[in-house]
Amino acid sequence: MVAGAHRLTSATRIVGIDIARGLAVLGMFGAHVGVIGAFDWLQPDTWSGVVSGRSSILFATLAGVSIAIMTGRRVVATGADLSGARFRIAVRAMLVFVIGMLLVALDTNVAVILPVYAVLFILSLPFLRMPPLALFGTSLAAAIAVPVVLSVVGPALDDPPNMWIALISYLFLTGSYPALIWIVFVLTGLGIGRLDLTAPTVQSRLLVVGTSLAALGYGAGELAVSALGSSALITTEPHSGSPFEVVGSLGFAIAVLGLCLLVSRVIHRPLFPLAAVGSMALSAYSLQIVAIALIGATVPGESDNILWLLFVVVALAAATLWKLFIGKGPFEWLLTASSRGASRLVPADRLDSATPQKRNSES
């Protein structure tokens, strides 16, 4: 077996997560350059619309899973190890923010998720030691309460007094991915990442629970719209940020992850290209934005889905070859090398002193 293929399927990675992340990235390609109509479960010719909104939410949910993996998976790191992990996550967040803002500067009309993605990494840091049930409860409460709060506060921020307040408002409250809502997806992913994701029972439960949440969120939303009429808080439209859309789309993301974990148990080689894309999602996403800027693609697409298909084929082929012959994606290598290098500059005793636990309680 080629060394890169071994690394991708080794015990150090959960391949189903890479597959789900690959689907999220390719779905965002479609949301950016595809011809996407309103999604309707009962009309197969509209099913390409499933990528709108839901792909980025799957991406954010998997960010939470990644944070859990970086901080010990089921057994959370403590003491200096936890402080070091927090420091590395913060360094990664800063780099992702810089990359994201550079992509925004390309002015492609794509609502680049990376700056908010970086903010979400920082917002997750106080929650790293919270157990899964508490994370799920916090996420559920935020999914219901935060959209209501933002519907009241948002209009007051339509005319910010300066650039910095405008940026903060956009990142946290009023943008395409308001961090105070999107933290729901990251915290849920963090809780999921604390579970035994290699266990078939856990994988099956994710599929069942996710499907149930999706049916509950979207079903209740449609009933509410029929009874009360559509509004900012009563809709299931993508990126609306209503409680119904948040719960429904989160359920969809959980179900996709559960399905990918189950499928990866029996299918490996055919899904290698998709897993390769997922293993270097930051690189694939970022280079897609650069490609859109270079070719002047219409965002979103207006004629057909040929460009989306082309992006998918190129991403699958390039990621497969890169993974087989080189290994880690270029931007992933940058984040790993930078975060590890930065952590070496901070003495271990400083990291340890930053944790208010007694050393004998960690032994």
Topology, pairings included?
Elements: H1 3-9, H2 15-33, H3 54-70, H4 79-104, H5 114-124, H6 132-153, H7 163-174, H8 179-193, H9 200-228, H10 243-263, H11 272-279, H12 281-295, H13 306-325, H14 330-344, H15 348-353
Helix pairs in contact: 1-13, 2-3, 2-10, 2-11, 2-12, 2-13, 3-8, 3-10, 4-5, 4-14, 5-8, 6-8, 6-10, 9-10, 11-13
Structure description:
This protein has one domain. The N terminus and C terminus are likely disordered. The chain has 15 helices and no strands. It is mainly alpha-helical and 363 residues long. Helix content is 67%, strand content 0%. α2 runs antiparallel to α13, α5 crosses α8 and α6 runs antiparallel to α10. The longest helix has 29 residues.
Give the total of beta strands: 0
Q: Into which percent range does the helicity of residues fall? A: 55-70%
Task: Report the major sheet.
Answer: none
| SS element count, helices | 15
Low-confidence runs (pLDDT<50, min 5 residues)? Answer: 1-11, 354-363
Which band does the percent of strand residues land in? under 5%
Strand pairing plus helix content: what structural class?
mainly alpha
Based on Cα principal axes, name the global outline: globular
Q: What pattern of helices and strands is seen along the backbone?
A: HHHHHHHHHHHHHHH
Distance between the termini: 41 Å
- Whole-number mean pLDDT: 89
- Gyration radius, in Å: 20 Å
When the domains are counted, the total is 1
